[in-house]
Model the fold of this input.
Amino acid sequence: MKYQLLILLLFTSFLSMAQSNDAGIFQNHADIGNPKVKGAVSYDKDMQAYTIKGGGYNIWFNRDEFHYAYSKVKGDFIVTANVKLLGEGKDPHRKIGWMIRASEQDDAAHMSAVLHGDGLTVLQWRRLRGAYMRDPQDEIFAIKKNAQIIQLERNGKTFIMRIANPGEPLQEIGRTDMIDMPDQALAGLFVCSHNADVQEEGMAWNVRIEKTVPDTYNGYRDGILSSRMEIMNVFDGNRKIIYQDSGRFEAPNWTTDGKKLLFNQGGSIYTIPVEGGTPELLNTGNAKRNNNDHVISFDGKMLAISSHRDGMAGGGSTVYYLPITGGEPKIITDSTPSYLHGWSPNGKEVVYTAQRVSNSPAYNIYKKAINGGPEVQLTFNKSGLADGPEYSPDGKYIYYNATQSGTMQIWRMKPDGSGQEQITFDENNNWFPHISPDGKWMVILSFQPTVAPGDHPFYKRVMLRLMPAGGGAPKVIAYLYGGQGTINTPSWSPDSKHIAFVSNSGSFK
Done:
């Protein structure tokens, strides 16, 4: 009998663990309100996507019925996902979306960012436990219908809903503080069939829960948030997290054989397989204070790095190069500060941003041969910042970002510094142009206009955007919490289909 009881307990524990695994990043999933038709969640580990099945009469009046995949989250945070309902459905008011909820009780206060089967997109809430939801007092309707990307943010007592379709910037639908929500609440994805006798099904992908910090938070002064290494198909927008760490790592480079990513952490350089795994330390000799400016040569044989030297001007950032397999680095720039950003296609020169106070207080673009000779100044701004220089694969242009128009925008010039032309023209502050290996596309990092043009801080709401290398309208390919260290250096895959980048989140403990 004891043996049978032990087997039963082990089997029950196995089932419980299996259900937890099905929930992916979520701590739990459950039917709320005891719906007649039960729901379920399945998680595709390869695609990092969720399929959610749910029944339930509705999420309305003074009680709710639906299926919910959720975690307990305390404080401020942002949740974002691509979502869609599957099949034709039985009721036009079947729904999928994000919900922040006070508890698992069926009459709990909640804030929900909802996509309905007929395309209706709306922010809805129950003000307090047991309250009847009112139409239209307890909802804000979007003009846009059939949004695929839904974001819900909690900022203190205020809740903000934003939506977009692929390629678009997020648009705010509305915000409200008309709800009684405890500091620790549930946050997750749900499906409700809006028909007690029916089960409906939805999908969610690019699912992110990001713990935020105040806008005044300084990533150098106030502490480090956790880091996630992500790879993304730039054409369909699918993202995958391959590595996570509670510390700070930055700026992945994709090796030219397509097998590994190279990144910096704690002053060292590491590599990791693109499928994920355990990082391996790369030997950089006496250069042990490496920053997030490291670039692999076009032929894949050499690695250039920026590393700090004690007692030198401007923090002492110095450009070196070494074999891609590791070794003792050779110095390229004697003067500091110098921050590397690119190789010439022939592997004979590097380009970097540097401050030379004898010439100007501004940071300007320079290039220098790796085997010696004088550095060559390419931009001559008297104030502001020119940064992020990177050669196009054909060697015809150097792309960079600069503040000479008043905001940070993308520019390009010929390799001798002539023919400077502005490429982006919008309200965002755009940084770090990276050109695809086939020379057709450019990915940029965009900060909101509220960030100072010459600053690229940690831990902000930023976008990655894709545009033709010759110019054109950028389209959004990722919304994330990041900034400094997200994509400082070239990170395209050799096939020009994917990029690697770093996103951030605070701890959920």
The longest strand covers residues 200-211. The chain is about 5% helix and 45% strand. Confidence is low (pLDDT under 50) at residues 1-21. The domain at 226-505 is CATH 2.120.10.30 (Neuraminidase).
